């Protein structure tokens, strides 16, 4: 079957426009009106649609090349069944290929002021007065200027707008396009409403131009008349693209699919509305990496609005935050662990992670991604505490109790959880409430041969130092011996990770969701501390308190570490 050329239609600005995206490949079956390429000039982003249903026989352009009105971008073989009596017949090759008749393109010439803007102030710029002032906003040359419906009014009286910001969206039977603000300013009035029809040159409102932009706007050609943000090429009802993601979404949206070729078939009689969005919304989605094909449109005829893209992105993030990530490969475009053949660099041996390590790896990864962490560092003067501990160590031992610094830290942390109720809380899944707990259970990080375990010591606030020490000894011994039960690791309000017995000066522990804080403890050391006009040796304990910044503010965090420092510095304060 003979092929037909697909030409760049009247785009209201026909000079060398760059192709930023080629949306189809040779062999693709396309629907009538389906976007084939995206063009972007300094004034507009627009898409060139297929004039009719068919198959792409040859592509004559690629990304980066430039085209003008009338240039042939592809050859396509019309779909046999569509060749006669095609309901899209009006939108034929000749119609798209031919720039609309010259009477229509007249306004285009008068509004294309990129290069000679100074001459063009007869348009919306209201004279392009460099000192600002009010100016009517006119519909620019839209390449097809006859009675196009206003489907959306995007601004209201009093709104401040940036130059080029879309003001209204128009939709004809062949295009969706936006009329942008000619310059920055504020909207004095909008004189059109949804459902009205407009043509090129019609006044749609009045803009109070901000004086600061006048100079630049006149220099750039009084963008007022011609900022043809969007395009006369976007199809109305069948705004589908054939990139892979859109093809997938088309399938999900129920679009008919050619099972043999796996490609989206020609126009779906039921009205295939996949990726029906205006150019600025498409660009917005592209900037965020959002797949338009996955987004349900809430606008007229299922058109995707900017709010739809925003709520889709929000929902996707929430999914990740609520544990949607899996192992090393989290969703939403997060990087995955690369698969590297290290044997190319030298000898290697691969061993499997222990079950505990696999579980804790996923947990720390999820928490790291989900929680906005901040770590507050502090040190506590534990000279007196350590003297007290040493003085009571043997007596404790006689009663079968191992009195370590961690025992006192648990007691101090329990007091902090009582003094700062938000520290003993969890965020609800919707992120809008805090659940405050009336009990005080604290998890302790225990280093075991198989990996990290977090057994929980219950009701720390109600127990004395000896009981806490016994519980700590019990759970840490069972954790190391592999005898810990699932129940022993549930219900924590807060965690402590002590590396004091190992070493180091500070670290940034990861909060264990749904807890909102974790105290890291490093190795104490003797430090010269300035007291009463002289340096005295004091035993200083480094504290690293990580917290969920959604729940705890920085000042609160500093108050919490001050509290801990004071409590450990003078254990008597815990009695208050
Ligand atoms: N500074 C200096 N010495 C300290 C100290 C500190 N902050 N904390 C403990 N020590 C000392 C103890 O006093 C003890 O010495 P003595 O026997 O002379 O009293 C010695 O270090 C060993 O203590 P311990 O480890 O037996 O007991 P603990 O209560 O301090 O800790 C436990 C118990 C289970 C927390 C610990 O054994 C452990 O597993 N720590 C590792 C935690 C971990 O891996 N955290 C990282 C998690 S994130 O990957």
Descriptive notes:
The protein is an alpha+beta fold and 576 residues long. The protein has three domains: 4-96, OB fold (Dihydrolipoamide Acetyltransferase, E2P) (Beta Barrel); 117-314, RNA polymerase II/Efflux pump adaptor protein, barrel-sandwich hybrid domain (OB fold (Dihydrolipoamide Acetyltransferase, E2P), Beta Barrel); 359-575, 2-Layer Sandwich (Chloramphenicol Acetyltransferase). Strands 19, 22, 25, 26, 27, 28 and 29 form a seven-stranded mixed sheet that branches. It is elongated. The site of oxidized coenzyme A has 19 residues, from α10, β23 and β26.
Helix content: 25-40%
Net shape: elongated
Which molecules other than protein and nucleic acid are bound?
A: oxidized coenzyme A
Name the CATH class of the largest domain.
Alpha Beta
Distance between the termini: 93 Å
- The CATH topology name of the largest domain reads Chloramphenicol Acetyltransferase
Total beta strands: 29
Total count of domains:
3
